[in-house]
Amino acid sequence: MVNSDRKFIRKDKKDNKVPGELFVKGSGLETLILTTSIRFLGKSDINHSIKISIRDLAILSESNQAFLFLFNDDKSLISKTHEWCDNEVNSKVDFLQNIKSEKIDWWINQLEEGFIIQISDILNIPKEAKSFTELLDFPRITSVLIIPVFFKDYLGGFIALLNFSGIRRWKEIDFTLYRIISQLLGTALERHKTELLLNESEEKYKRIIENISDLIIVMDLKFNLEYVNEKIVLNLLKYQKEDIIGKSSLAFIHADDLNKAVTILKEGFKGGENIVELRFKHQEGHWLWFECRGQIFKGKDGKHKCLIISRDINERKLTEKRYKGLFENSPNGILLIDLNGIIIDSNSTIKNIFNLEKVDLLNKSINDFDDIFSYEIKQYFKKIFHASFRNTFPNSIEVQINRNNNTSIWVEIQASLIKQNSNSIIHLIFQDISEKKKGEILEEKFKEKLENEVYIRTKELNNALEQQKLYFDQILKASQFKTEFMSTMSHELRTPLNAIIGFTDLLLEGEYGECNSDQLDFIRDIKTSAEHQFNMIKHILDISKIEAGQTLLNFKHFSLNLMINQVKSGLKPLYQRKNLKFKLKGLSTEREIYADPIRFKEILLNLLSNAIKFTIKGEIELLVQENHGEWIFKVRDTGVGIAQKDFPLIFKEFKRVDSTFVGSIPGTGLGLSLTKRLINLHGGDINFTSVLGGGTTFTFTIPKNK
């Protein structure tokens, strides 16, 4: 299960470093990390602190119940040592004690490898993992999260978070932060264990201290070193024990840190545990940063001594340095202001915003700069102050700032909350948007001018339209006359053509005797020419009727699949004669369309027969698509294509592309024009794309409800 199904377990990197992004982001988990760190300082009741910490972790992770389990010394048994549950869950005071580790060996194996076990849905728990949930005996459990607690590099126990209110899914960042909380608990428990052992036995104290990853120092009140855990001091600073024991600790502290070191050693540690950051000298001469926590205690000889636990923080310092570089080199101005409104830091870009030096701003209140910090900015700061308690910040604002040199600029101000030395700091970013505002002003002026010009032009167009209406009335009369004339003429022309076509069919069928080959060729030419003339007259008449508004469509619902199959069958001899492939896509299920079936069929036949005519080899494709309001049909071929210069001719009557190949193919130049008009009558539209020698695609639409 471990190797094949990872959705229940997660393993973070073992570098145990807080990601850089957490340094500047304010969040509930970060606040919990901070308060948890502070909670375990000094001589606080560790059991109470642990219970409060797992309560906070459970609330923030939206869990209903939380347990802390710890192993006994030989790890053969594990027991629940601390518990928290919300008001809707019953506490199990004496429950889950002295559980044999072998009963939950699957869980322990995952935790020892550093995995966080997440089970979002208890119904999907793997078979080998059911042992622990069966021990819990909570029928209402829906989700479980198990976080390992390490003492240095070995598993000391784990935190179990239970959810009873539905499937729970955790975010990516949660696991890193949960792991930090568990590390803090592990460190606190480890430290507590160390302190207990110190009180019991000096020898035992030394053995335990040697295995702690932090640098442990014991010195007298004159700063002389009496003890260091030699493995760690060798590993971190490369000193042998004899190189430093008996010497003054001040000899190993950076000169710039001596004053605060002496002060904290003399006074700070007397009132309890305090924290100070100092640089210690490496055996090779460079300096390393350590976070030092100290405590005064009385040794067996009755003399007061100082215990200092020092943690390597060089990685954290590098992160702070990188942040400082980003802070100083940001193209936007940045101010750091405490919750009292006092400016505690600014970057170099702030001078470009306010025209003030950094020294003019530091340690002063924003209320001292009434000319610069306008009423809007101060109100925005108040909103940020109140929002900091809810961790929900207002949106950015755009304001005009009066600079120190009697000029003004527009800025956009954004706010966030960061932690700095355990204090909450408001982080304000000022972005110069003066050019943007200038653009908006110009845009407004342009809009006003454009509206005026549109008004004038509209008036001119209305006058022109009145004139055109007069012309249109005359054109309409002429069009009606043309339509009536074409209708009469087409009837007079089609009557003899029908006779010619009929008689040629009889001759070709041998009704009046056999014809020789030359005679048959002549008769076929006569029939082809007559049919061509007949179709041209039909198209002219159709176009004339459409123009005169005399063409009415007979809309009805009919099977789109059946219609297309009929068209395909009718065209089959044409494309098979040329060895072309015909592909139909997008019509896998039975569909209905609302249109005039006769005219719709004519549209498809015109476009597909055109595609076949102008394709020498390759394929013809009909693609059917639809969206919320319309049908979309695409007829694609791999034919000769159309030159861009000929695009304007495609939908014009009696116009054909001037090329040898096109000229060799019979045609009236009316098919696409008629097709476009029929599509427009349906309320649709048609367009095309083409590459000369690369084929053509015609796309037309038919509304679903006209």
Question: Can you walk through the features of this model?
Answer:
The chain has 706 residues and is of the alpha+beta class. The chain has five domains: 9-197, Beta-Lactamase (2-Layer Sandwich); 201-317, Beta-Lactamase (2-Layer Sandwich), CATH 3.30.450.20; 334-432, PAS domain (Beta-Lactamase, 2-Layer Sandwich); 438-529, no CATH class; 556-703, Heat Shock Protein 90 (2-Layer Sandwich), CATH 3.30.565.10. Helix content is 42%, strand content 24%. The protein is built from 19 helices and 24 strands. The strands form five sheets. A seven-stranded antiparallel sheet has the order 1-5-6-7-2-3-4, sandwiched between helices. A hairpin with a 3-residue loop joins strand 21 (619-626) and strand 22 (630-637). Helix 1 runs parallel beside helix 5 (172-200) and helix 16 packs parallel to helix 17 (597-613). The longest helix has 75 residues, at 434-508. The two termini are 59 Å apart. 23% of the residues are buried.
TL;DR of this structure?
The chain is of the alpha+beta class and 706 residues long.
Major sheet size, sense and barrel closure: 7 strands, antiparallel
- How helix-rich are the residues, as a percent range? 40-55%
Continuous helix count: 19
Proportion of residues in extended strands: 15-25%
Low-confidence stretches: 1-7, 10-26
Q: At the third CATH level, what is the topology name of the largest domain? A: Beta-Lactamase
CATH superfamily of the largest domain: GAF domain
Q: How many β strands by DSSP?
A: 24
How many discrete structural domains? 5
Strand order of the largest sheet: 1-5-6-7-2-3-4
Mean pLDDT: 80
